[in-house]
Specification:
FAD/NAD(P)-binding domain; Enolase-like, domain 1; 5-stranded parallel β-sheet; 416 residues
Length: 416
């Protein structure tokens, strides 16, 4: 009697989204697949979100490991770390790694993530110019901090501010360079961004806003940044934190449909090849590309259900909110926090406590709904505001109390 061969699942990408999908699959079907994983880094799977505490010296690399090599062995998963897949042969249903190793698949999961965008200005390839994306980048920054004093971080978003804080914690003089006129413009309105900048300046960070990098200066190593207005900033280290791009070259070369990212349907299946699935930052679903963790986890659950042949779940996209902690300062934003001519703002400012709250309300058909929120300093009610937003709750009777939070609104309602 012959034993039936397990379906072969090959995972391209050993990051958080791909391995979360594998973990979800193991919960549904613990021994149903022959799993092989390829990763570009020579490690097990680690939590990229916690790279900032490693840079700041609050954690060690071992503290942020999610799946050690021993875990892969215990799950009977073949891990090829440090040997990325360079080609997919869809006709033969085989992937080919950098080493020449070939692995056949019945189902293929692409979780190739994203790569940092490096501004292609003259000098961007000089030694001392690095990105902030993986543990190797963190190690390079830590090494530079031991031998150099001045650092410049290009990018005033979350990643750039975390990099700047970490380098400052390592003893460097740090200047954040941002092309926009306010920090974290995708998450914060200008009043909240101004509060954040002032708080970070008090801690020792310096800022150059509305600054466009024209050239990175140096011969053997970076020595300065030159801006489009002709001014210069002397520096020993440049960290690029200006955004990421979905890593789709492998998929495009294999002939899969790609737009900004790999196009998938509600089952996380690629449109071109039903044997190939994709999850994470490399994915475009209904026109949207997600970089936050919560949507990636939703994708992982749906994809795992279909890989386990329990295909009842569908991924309908994600409505996202962002709760951030930038150098110990709590921030929360959701929805359309800018608003427009058809919206009203409810604003609370408490400078003494360092609290700022702004709710954007839209009145339509006699109903008042929250469509956006920005919270600075006190974010406890962020999830409640987000819930009201998702449910399209009429908040007309709560307008005068909303900014004081859920407990006050519930208490006032009970008192009434």
């Amino acid at each position: 009697m012959s034993l039936r061969r397990k379906p072969r699942l090959v995972v391209v990408g050993n990051g958080m989204a791909g391995m979360r999908t594998v973990e979800e699959l193991l919960k549904l079907d613990a021994d149903g697949h022959d799993i092989t994983v390829f990763g570009s880094e020579a490690h097990g799977n680690y939590n990229r979100i916690l790279l900032s505490p490693v840079l700041a010296g609050d954690k060690q690399f071992a503290d942020i490991m999610l799946n050690t090599r021993e875990w892969y062995e215990s799950q009977r998963i073949r891990l090829h770390a440090g040997d990325p897949v360079v080609r997919i042969d869809r006709q033969r249903r085989v992937v080919i790694a950098h080493s020449g190793l070939e692995a056949p698949y019945d189902r293929l999961l692409l979780a190739t993530g994203s790569k940092p965008f490096v501004i292609p200005v003259p000098g961007h390839q000089l030694p001392g110019v690095i990105a902030f994306r993986d543990i190797a980048d963190v190690e390079a920054m830590l090494s530079a901090s031991r031998t150099h004093r001045r650092a410049a971080v290009i990018g005033g978003g979350l990643l750039g501010l975390e990099a700047a804080n970490g380098l400052m914690r390592q003893g460097m003089d740090v200047t954040v360079i941002h092309v926009m006129d306010s920090l974290m413009e995708r998450q914060l309105d200008k009043p909240a961004a101004a509060l954040l900048q002032a708080a970070l300046e008090r801690r020792g960070l310096q800022f150059r806003l509305s600054a466009q990098t024209a050239e990175i200066v140096g011969s053997d190593r970076v020595t300065a940044i030159r801006f489009k207005d002709g001014s210069e900033l002397t520096t020993d280290l440049v960290v690029m934190a200006v955004g990421i791009r979905p890593n789709i070259e492998l998929a495009k070369t294999a002939g899969l449909l790609c737009d900004r990212a790999i196009v998938v349907d509600d089952t996380l299946q690629t449109h071109t090849d039903p044997r190939i699935y994709a999850v994470g930052e490399c994915v475009q679903h209904r026109g949207a590309v997600y970089g936050l963790v919560a949507p990636l986890w939703e994708q992982a659950r749906v994809c795992a259900a279909h890989l386990a042949a329990l295909g009842v779940k569908r991924y309908g996209g994600s409505v996202t909110s962002t709760k951030l902690k930038v150098t110990g300062i709590d921030l929360y934003s959701a929805g359309d926090f800018i608003g427009g001519a058809d919206t009203e703002d409810l604003v609370l400012r408490d400078p003494r406590r360092g609290v700022y709250k702004r709710l954007v309300i839209r009145k339509s058909d006699g109903v008042d709904r929250i469509v956006g929120a920005v919270l600075y300093g006190d974010v406890a009610d962020g999830p409640w505001y987000f819930e009201l937003m998702q449910k399209c709750t009429d908040v007309a009777t709560l307008r005068n109390k909303l900014l004081f939070g859920r407990a006050f609104c519930d208490g006032a309602g009970q008192a009434a």
